[in-house]
Input
Amino acid sequence: MTPPLLEVRDLHVEIPMPYGRLHAVRGVSLSVDTAESVGLVGESGSGKSLTLRALLGLLPRPARIVSGAILIDGEDVTGLPAKRLKRRLADTMSMVFQDSLTALNPVMRVGDQIAEAPQRRLGASRGEAKAIAVDLMTEVGIADPERRYRLYPHELSGGMRQRICIAIALSTKPRLILADEPTTALDVTIQAQVLGVLARLRQEEHVGLLLVSHDLAVVGQACSRLYVMYAGRVVASGDLVDLVTAPRHPYTFSLLRSVPDPDRRVARLLSIQGQPPDLAETITGCSFAVRCPFAEDACRDWEPELLPAGPARLSACRRIDTADRWTAMVAEEVSP
Amino acid sequence: MAENEILVVEGLARHFAPHVSAIDRLFGTKPTENRAVDGVDLVLHKGETLGLVGESGCGKSTLARTVVGLHRPTAGVIRYGGEVLPARRTRAQKRAIQMVFQDPYSSLNPRMTVGQMLSELLKFHQLVPRNKVRERSRELMHLVGLPERALGQRPRQFSGGQRQRVGIARALALEPTVLLADEPVSALDVSVQATIINLFADLKETLDLSVIFVSHNMAVVRQICDRTAVMYRGRIVETGSTDTLFDDPVHPYTRLLTGSVPRLVGAEGPQQVEVAPADDRDAVRQEVARAAAPCRFADRCPSVVAECADEPPLLPDPRDPTRLAACVHVPRRAEVARADADPRSRP
Output
C-alpha cells in the first residue's frame, strides 16, 4: 500500500498567553492521498486554521508546535534541519489564504508575483518565468492573461485576485494545495467559479486539496472526505456522503441540523446550546458533552478517543451505538 | 393600495455623489456617480418576511438603510401604512421602522450597559412610565432569550450571538412594526446562526412583525423568508414567493445565483457556472452594450438577445402573476403558441 501524500500524527499547537497557555490544537491526526480532496471543518476557534498553518510552518507568532509528526510520502520530515524541512514542505504544498488583498504584494504587478517563484525556485529565466505565469493565469481561468499580467492587485476584483493567489500557489508545482477559507470573502457566484477551478486542477493536474472552512456546504461541494474539528480535536472523520447522511458524532449531527438547506425549508433548525469550551483551560472528559443533546454523566469523565464508526470512519463518541436513534431523540425534544 | 401592504417603496433611488479629486479637476474628467439604488419598487406585506438577496455592492444594504431613514432618498417615495414618509420623519415614524445591523459590536455603544442603553431609549420615546422602565427592560431580555443579569453588562462581555440578541432587543424596545435586518447572522458562527434564525422566526410569530431580511446567504433566506426579492446593480430583477423563486427561477441572474449556492451532497457542482458566451451571442452582447440603457445583466447573461438594449421593467410572469421579473424573456414564458403569435409582447 502506498503511503499517503501527507500525514499528520498527533499534532499539538500551543499559544503562550499572559495568563497561561492556550492549547489550541490538541492532538490532530489526518492524512491526504495524492489528488484527494479533503475538508477540515469547524467553528472559529476550533483549531482548523492553526492546524493548516502548522503544516507549512506558517504559524502566527507566538503560536508553536509542541509535538507531532508530519510525514510526506510516508517519510517523517519533522526531524530534518530547519532549512531542508522548510524546502521539503514548500516543494510539496502551497497555501491559498482567505483574504487575497492582504496576501498579495500591493506594489508589484500580479504577473510578476506569479513569475517570482519559477524564477527563484525553479531557476527559470525571466522570459520563461513570464511564459509560465501567463500559462498559469490561463489555467486558473483568467481571460486575456497578457493584459492582466501587468495589473496591480487593487485593479482586480476579489474573484480574480483569488485566482491569482491560486496561480501563485501552483507556480511551484505543488502536489497539494492548502486552502484556508479561500472563498469566504467572495460572492456566491464567484465562489462557485473558484471552487470550480480547484476541482478542475485536481481532476486534470492531480493537485490535491486540503480545504479549511467553517461552511459545511462549501466543504461538501469541494471535498470527498471530511475531518470535523471541535475544541482543538478531530471528533469525526470519514467519507463525505457517509458523514452527512448518517452522522456518527453528536457535533456533526447537530451541525448538520443547524445549517439551513438552500433546496428546502425545515420546520425548525436545531440550535446547539452553549458555547465551545475555553481552550486555555484543561478539559476533562468529552469537550462537547456540555452542549451535547445525547450526553450522559459518564461522558464528562470519558477521555475521548477516535473509535471506528464504520468503514474508514472514526468518531470520538462513546455513544456511537445509539446513533441510529439520535434523530428520534432530538425530535422528542424539539416538539414540546 | 391593498390593505395588507405595510411598506411600499416606489421608484426609490439613492445615488452617492462622487469624490472629485484634484486630478479630476485638472483634467476636467467627471467621475461617475455611484448609483447604489437606482429605481427600486418593492412591497412589504403585513406580517411577512421578505428576503433581499444579491451580490456585494448590488445596493441591498443601501436600500435597507434608505428605508430606515439613514440615507435620504435621491428620488422616489417610501410609503408606510399608506402615508408617504417625509424627509424628516416624526418620532413615531422613526420608531415604527427599526434596524438590526450586521456587526452588533460596532453598532452598540461599548461604554453603556445594556440596561442603560434600553432605559435611555424607553425614556426618550416615552414608551413606558418611568417606574416601569426596569420591568420592560427585563421583558425585552426574556423576549430575545438573554438572562436578566445581561442588563448590567457591556457589549464586550457578550459572545457574538448574545451581542446580536442585544442588537435585536434594542430594535424591539421601540416596538417597531417593520424590522430591517441587514445581514444579521453573517458575522456569526454556524452553530450560533441557527439560534438567531430561530429567534427571528419566533419574534415574527409573537410580535406580528414585518421583516425585510437582507442577506447574501441564499440558504438562510430560503429558511426564513416568505417572499424574496433579488437585487442586481441597484435594481430589483425578480420577486416572488421564496419557494417558487428558488425552485424555478425566472431571471437569468436568479438562475445563476441559485445555481451557484454550494450544496452539501447531491449536486454534482454548480448547475450554471458562467458559461463562456457563444460567438454569435458576443456580437449581440456588444451591440446591446452600446445602447443608452441596456439591461444591467446583459454583459453576463447567457441568453442575451437584441431586445436587451432596452432595460426591461419588472414584468409579471404570465404563468403566475404574483411573480415579477425584469427580463425580456419573461412574457415568453407563457405557452409557446402565444409567444409564437406575438413574440414581442410587452406591456
